[in-house]
Design brief:
3 helices; 18% strand
């Protein structure tokens, strides 16, 4: 539904993955990255079954993942 729906506001888009991340920073460096729910399921496909069962718990990504996520956002 990419129609305007008669409102001024954001258009509805095809439900893709919104890449929304929260960063914890120490001295300007990103220490850990937590992702919002909409993006989480997308990356869960690459995670283990145990983590999939955790469901809504925010996935804490390893420090090495911060670089890949930075590049995804940029």
């Amino acid at each position: 539904m990419a129609t305007k729906l008669g409102k001024t506001g954001p258009r509805r888009t095809h439900g893709g993955v919104k890449k929304t991340f929260k960063f914890k920073k120490k001295k300007g460096k990103i220490v850990s990255v937590t992702m919002e729910k909409s993006c989480r399921r997308h990356l869960l496909l690459q995670k283990s079954d145990r983590q999939k069962k955790m469901g809504n718990a925010p996935i804490q990504l390893a420090k090495g993942d911060a670089k890949t996520i930075k590049s995804m956002i940029a």
